[in-house]
Design a protein that fits this description.
heterodimer; A: alpha/beta; Rossmann fold; B: alpha/beta; 5-stranded parallel beta sheet; globular
């Protein structure tokens, strides 16, 4: 089985985990096409041909030890990782709107919305993210009966955000209000339905990695590698990236989905 | 001032000789607007056109219940976003405007305007604000109270309210006087109640309601100015039993006369003649689209040209807002649907 992983910095944990598995997954071969950031311009698709259109992109692929051009017909599944497919999409709505009927207080008297309205807002917001735009471009080039499209979300922020000053204050607020699990369930339900509409399967973050309903356990974030230099780890205060242990769980999830586990 | 002293636009013949009927002299504003003026909008569906056009300018439009991040405007419209300065939906009558202000300042819920249909709870005062209705009465009440707080904030902080009067015909609850935006029997699913009675307001009623509204909101916000317009859109149906054409003309005449009376009673109020530009302009005999109810986009653009020319510090920033505008949300069309 041949797989192509397209991603941003959140692909690093998959690269590390795959390399760490050291052939344990048998005949499965994986290519990676990754670039930090979220710019759609880092990828170009012409028919079945997917390639890095910039010299920087090609150099980065070479640094990863990967090709800079791929024939999409040669893969059994294409995986898109991160690229704004993230719980942050939900939380940024909830930073400005209070959900009626959820068991938390509207301390700042921000405008209220119903849960159906929240679902529709999130669904709309997934329309323009890099991940779904990529998937919509790739889908027509695939043979639907033999090639799968899979979308993997960016992990929820690390639980270290509960310890001090964090960028992801919205997550902290929602976790402390004990609605993290509701947020997660809503995000994953909406994302699953949205991606199904594009023809992609959404694989949610594994249960065992989630704490406080909406965060990633520290065991799965400490020591995360940097995509720009896989020999380096992310700084200790990094709250966004997952490590190879997390990546290994994702690989198990992906291979199970593809019937290759 | 005699006829010797009045300017050219006072004479039909001189206007007639001008290619544009001297429309550039039609509106002489009594209130000054700047890009810093905090503007709130409300009214019948035609007000959505004015608000939409103002969004394309450098005007400061209040929006206390903004579109959730990421939601598309077309989706938001189904939830009442982006139409006005808060999600109150269309306010067709002076009675509705007064009632909204009274409820906002008293944080008042009205039992007779809350009902259940097909398992969902309906806010009869904003019947199209949630496409599927509310999941519970408690959620509906929390939503309405939150909304009323935002409305109160608008009335307390706006510098200018642009209000478009649409109808004199209204349906109200016999015992309480609660006014509905539309006959509840036309909703889907219909809500029929013998306590809902028809009323067609007279000039004195409209004047009284607008007068009470102004006194109420100018208590906490004495500087609030109000710019009135009258919707040129004909009634889609009349409950008087008479011809809809006569009912339309009667309704608009009452509203227009009432506004004139209010301008005499309350300084800081003004009237913008968009109604006249659409319905009485000899140069635009066909100001409506095929259904004769929807004002042509170019006429709306012309209205806004005249408005902006009178307030020169307000300037368009995106040129084609009218072309990109969504169709207005109009509960009134349900009256037609109820009979077809």
């Amino acid at each position: 089985m041949r797989l192509l992983v397209i991603g941003n910095s959140h692909a690093a944990c998959l690269i590390e985990a795959w390399r760490g598995a050291d052939g344990a997954h048998g005949a499965t071969e994986v290519d990676f096409f990754a670039r930090a950031g979220t710019a759609l311009g880092e990828f170009a698709i012409e028919g079945r041909r997917l390639y890095a259109p910039t010299a920087e992109g090609r150099a980065f692929q070479a640094q990863l030890g990967q090709k800079a051009e791929f024939d999409l017909a040669g893969y059994d599944a294409i995986l898109v990782v991160g690229h704004e497919l993230s719980g942050f999409r939900l939380v940024r709505i909830l930073n400005r709107n209070h959900v009626l009927g959820w068991p938390y207080r509207n301390r700042l008297d921000i405008p209220v919305i119903t849960e159906p309205c929240l679902r529709d807002a999130l669904d709309d917001s997934l329309e323009d993210i890099t991940a779904t735009r990529l998937l919509r471009q790739i889908a027509p080039a695939l043979s639907a009966d033999r090639q799968r499209l899979i979308a993997l979300p960016q992990p929820y922020p690390s639980q270290i955000i509960l310890q001090g000053k964090a960028k992801s204050v919205g997550f902290v607020r929602l976790c402390r209000a004990q609605v993290g699990a509701q947020c997660r369930a809503l995000f994953e339900t909406v994302a699953q339905a949205h991606l199904a509409g594009i023809g992609a399967a959404f694989l949610p973050q594994p249960d065992e990695t989630v704490v406080e309903g909406l965060l990633t356990g520290q065991d799965y974030t400490l020591g995360a590698r940097r995509l720009s230099d896989l020999s380096q780890t992310q700084p200790p205060q990094d709250e966004l990236h997952a490590n190879a242990r997390y990546g290994a769980l994702i690989w198990a999830q992906v291979l199970a989905e593809l019937g290759a586990a | 001032m005699s006829y010797d002293d009045v300017p050219a636009q006072c004479f039909w013949g001189k206007c007639q000789r001008d290619a544009d009927f001297l429309l550039d002299r039609l509106y002489a504003p009594q209130i000054a607007l700047t890009p810093q003026t905090r503007i709130a909008t409300a009214g019948s569906c035609f007000a959505q056109k004015i608000g939409g056009a103002l969004k394309a300018t450098n005007a400061t439009l209040l929006d206390l219940e903004p579109l959730p991040l990421g939601m598309r405007p077309a989706t938001g419209q189904r939830y009442g976003y982006g139409l006005y300065s808060a999600r109150y939906g269309n306010i067709y009558t002076s009675a509705q405007l007064l009632q909204l202000a009274e409820d906002a300042f008293a944080a008042r819920l009205r039992d007779e305007a809350i009902w259940q249909a097909d398992g969902a709870w309906i806010d009869g005062l904003r019947p199209r604000i949630e496409p599927l209705g509310f999941a519970s009465r408690a959620i509906l009440e929390e939503a309405r109270l939150s909304h009323l707080r935002k409305v109160r904030e608008i009335f307390c902080t706006a510098d200018l309210l642009i209000f478009t009067l649409g109808l004199t015909e209204r349906w109200q609850h016999r015992q309480t006087g609660t006014v509905f935006p539309i006959w509840p029997g036309a909703l889907s699913p219909p809500h029929r109640d013998p306590a809902h009675v028809f009323e067609n307001a007279r000039v004195m009623t409209v004047v009284d309601e607008l007068d009470r509204f102004l006194r109420l909101v100018r208590g906490p916000n004495p500087g609030l100015q109000v710019l009135f317009t009258v919707s040129p859109v004909p009634l889609i149906a009349t409950a008087t039993g008479g011809h809809v054409l006569a009912a339309t003309q009667r309704s608009k005449a009452v509203l227009r006369a009432a506004v004139d009376e209010i301008l005499h009673l309350h300084p800081g109020c003004d009237y913008f003649p968009s109604y006249e530009i659409v319905t009485a302009n000899p140069r635009a005999r066909s100001a409506f689209l095929g259904d004769e109810r929807e004002v042509r986009p170019e006429i709306v653009a012309r209205i806004m040209d005249l408005f902006l020319a009178a307030h020169p510090t307000l300037q368009r920033q995106t040129p084609d807002a009218a072309a990109e505008a969504l169709d207005p949300v109009c509960e009134e069309v349900l009256l037609q649907a109820a009979r077809t």
